[in-house]
Design goal:
This protein is mainly alpha-helical. It is built from eleven helices and seven strands. It has a three-stranded parallel sheet, with no helix packed on it. The protein has a two-stranded antiparallel sheet with strand order 1-2. A hairpin with a 2-residue loop joins β6 and β7. The longest helix is centred in the middle third of the chain and has 30 residues. This is DEKNAAC103797. It holds the Pfam family TFB6.
Length: 427
């Protein structure tokens, strides 16, 4: 029986050993390819030695080494040369700088004969064609949450004639009474709608059943706009996020078509007298109202998404107003005045406390689940009956492709509900 080599002993973790001094026989060195790195680089083409073709390898002194038997291993015919080029030449530019796209190698020059094709050291310097930019499967981002938002210029107003004025105590009381009355009227109308819907004696076209999801969203949107105006004295809410929800006509109405920045006057926490509590209440009431509704058209979904976007932008701006993070959406622009008087003292408390952020997070999670469930139910019946698109009923047999594209678009928009707030409140 042939003798078998003994299994080497493995040393312990704390044991010191000495490497054996046995040298590898010279006849095995070539088989193990233990040559130096310089020899390897020279063989690849860095020196003057390697010639592909029927010629022998020439040394650095220019003599032909036909008498050397060892050089027979480097002799190649034309077929071996082609095979060598296919296997050894990389297809991708591995020397590209970090951050630059990888590009395919240039084809070898045709003026070099195939029988005497030497590897040129300037091969890697040839111009290569850059890779084309890959297509974004999600379409073009238009100020999505993941993209760069609009910059808000925060103006520091110095002087009594500059910037917004705080409401007096009488004005604050009147505004609170007005907001309470509007929210109570919306709640009464909602309860009346539920009672009429469950009453079998009411006909489908009765006035009590005309209160739909779009009417609810419009009513709440008016209250949210009043709350926003009481803080910054600006009628329109800047769409820092969710700009892609707006249609072209709505962008023109808001005056934000193509704008990259918006100016807002700087305010202090003493401008607030409960507006944040009303915003949180509206978010919670809206989640309660949605439990009793179902989506019947894409127009209803669009109206609801506009309300979500407005709430998200307002609360995101309030959270960022005096954030310690310098990478927020605000920049400062000071308005100078000769008769400048000092601004009101800035309180250190944030506009929205951590307790309010926790309440907002729970409402958002609940709202997202409700809206996703409502939209799933809408998708199931979208291709069974006629679907309302832009206020017109269209038969599904002729507009299946259009409905599919609209549903896919709204799926992305629904996934971004309240994302601006979540980016600021999530742990």
């Amino acid at each position: 029986m042939p003798s078998r080599p003994s299994t080497p002993l493995h040393p312990d973790a704390d044991q010191e050993i000495e490497a054996p001094g046995v040298e590898i026989p010279k006849e095995l060195t070539s088989a193990l390819d233990l040559g130096s790195e310089e020899d390897t680089d020279e063989e690849i083409g860095g020196g003057n030695g390697l010639l592909l073709g029927k010629e022998r390898i020439q040394g650095h002194d220019g003599r032909n080494n036909d008498d050397d038997e060892d050089d027979d291993d480097y002799s190649m015919d034309s077929e071996d040369s082609e095979q060598f080029e296919k296997e050894e030449r990389p297809l991708i530019d591995a020397d590209a700088s970090i951050g630059e796209p990888l590009s395919p190698r240039a084809s070898p020059t045709e003026d070099i004969p195939s029988t005497f094709c030497a590897v040129d050291t300037t091969f890697f310097d040839n111009e290569t064609e850059k890779r084309r930019t890959p297509v974004n499967p999600f379409g073009v981002n238009e100020r999505l949450v993941s993209s760069e938002p609009i910059r808000i210029i925060r103006k520091k107003s110095r002087g009594a004639d500059y910037g917004p004025r705080r409401l007096s105590m009488t004005q604050q009381s009147r505004l609170i009474d007005y907001i309470d009355g509007r929210l109570m009227a919306i709640q009464r109308r909602y309860i009346k709608y539920l009672s009429a819907r469950e009453d079998p004696d009411n006909e489908p076209g009765s006035s009590a059943l005309r209160f739909g999801l779009s009417d609810l969203a419009h009513s709440l949107d008016e209250v949210v706009t009043i709350i926003w105006y009481s803080i910054f004295k600006v009628k329109t809410v800047p769409f820092v996020y969710h700009y892609n929800v707006l249609s072209k006509e709505e962008r023109n109405v808001l005056g934000q078509d193509g704008s990259s920045e918006i100016e807002l006057d700087e305010i202090t926490p003493d401008f607030l007298f409960g507006q944040t509590n009303y915003l949180i209440k509206i978010m919670g009431d809206l989640a309660d109202y949605l439990e009793k509704f179902q989506f019947t058209s894409l127009d209803e979904i669009h109206t609801l998404l506009l309300l979500f976007a407005k709430l998200d932008n307002i609360i995101s701006i309030l959270i960022d107003e005096y954030s310690d993070d310098e990478d927020g959406i605000f920049e400062e622009a000071i308005v100078e005045n000769d008769d400048a008087r000092p601004l009101p003292s800035k309180f250190k408390q944030p506009f929205i406390s951590n307790t309010e952020k926790i309440r907002i997070d729970s409402i958002i999670n609940r709202t997202k689940l409700l809206v996703i469930g409502m939209f799933d139910g809408f998708k199931e019946g979208a291709f069974d009956d006629a679907v309302v698109i832009n206020g017109k009923k269209r038969d599904h047999r002729s507009t299946d492709d259009g409905i599919k594209s609209e549903i896919q678009r709204h799926e992305l928009l629904i996934g971004e509900i309240y994302e601006g707030i979540l980016d600021r409140t999530s742990i």
